[in-house]
Amino acid sequence: MDLLVIVAGLIVGFVVGLTGMGGGALMTPVLVLLFGVTPLAAVSSDLVAAAVMKPVGSWVHMRHGTIQWPLVRWLMLGSVPSAFVGVLVLRALGSSADVQEVVKASLGVALLIAASGMVVKAYTALLARARREAAAAQGVVLPQPRRAEGRSADRPVTVRPLPTVLVGAAGGLIVGMTSVGSGSLIIIALLVLYPTLTANRLVGTDLVQAVPLVASAALGHLLFGDFRLDLTASLLLGSIPGVYLGAQLSSRAPGWLIRRALAVVLLASGLKLLSLPTPALGVVLVLAVALGPILWAAVRRREGRRAHAAVREEAPAAL
Question: What is the pLDDT of residues 236-245, one digit of tens each?
Fold first, then answer.
């Protein structure tokens, strides 16, 4: 057992329990960058470990009924076979140095997409919040969108089968090849396809669909990948209690701070996996940490002014 890998698993598991995302997006780069594990071995071991962790969060959401089962079924239809295919694609490519570099680059691109998706999601939430605050400040009751009339938070969403299957297939292929995407990528795609889905149902649905997806990819890596039992055991020793602790503290922790930190980690890992020189990476991270909050505050003020102006224009129709 490697104590440092156990500690890394504990930290990543804690982040997953706290934010609901970041398992493969964090653990695989950590194994590659900090512990010198080959990309294929890191993907294989991380997926097998995730196959053990994912059911824990899913069980909690099942107990609370926060799952959209029709979405789960359509996602599984695309993700489960494509995850296994992703492993076969890796095996067909072989295990040469060139293949390792392809896997490494794929990981980097997937992480940057995940980080970008988190920023887009935060910006969308900012727009909605600015509009609500502007309406409240001006004492205006805005009409609800027609599509939301009569909609209950507990009412199942109208499933779009073909796009949902395609999301599952694309996500499964990426997960099978990189171990990234079962949470960070698919949950963002679901947010775009189903914007009325409540946050807890979004997370619950994604966690449950990820169980067979990760299991399929893990089975493929057990059979054809570069699975390492000792590495996976060390990951599980740390990640399982980490997930539990993170879930217990999730209601008390400042989620916005954790998500911003996660976005920075995803950015750093993605750029490093794409072979960005360390000095340049340091400059990018310093700029992101130093200028990010300033730029975000400026965007928040600008959208607040726009929201106030829009509410004033709509006020006569709302009264």
Answer: 999 888 887 8
At position 124, the amino acid (one-letter code) is T
Q: HSE (CB half, 13 Å, CA atoms) of 248?
A: 6
- CA distances from residue 33 to 38, 170, 221, 276 in whole angstroms, order as listed: 9, 26, 21, 13
Q: Which of 220, 254, 280 is nearest to 51 (CA)?
A: 220
Both tokens assigned to 236: 């599980």
In order of 68, 120, 150, 196, the CA distances from 155 in angstroms are 9, 26, 9, 10
* Alpha-carbon gap, residue 146 to 149, rounded angstroms: 5
Average predicted confidence (pLDDT) for the chain: 79
What does the pLDDT average to over 24-36?
A: 82
Give 145's DSSP letter: P
Residue type, 24: G
- Work out the number of other CB atoms within 10 angstroms of the CB of residue 91: 17
Q: Helices then strands (H, E): number in the chain?
A: 11, 0
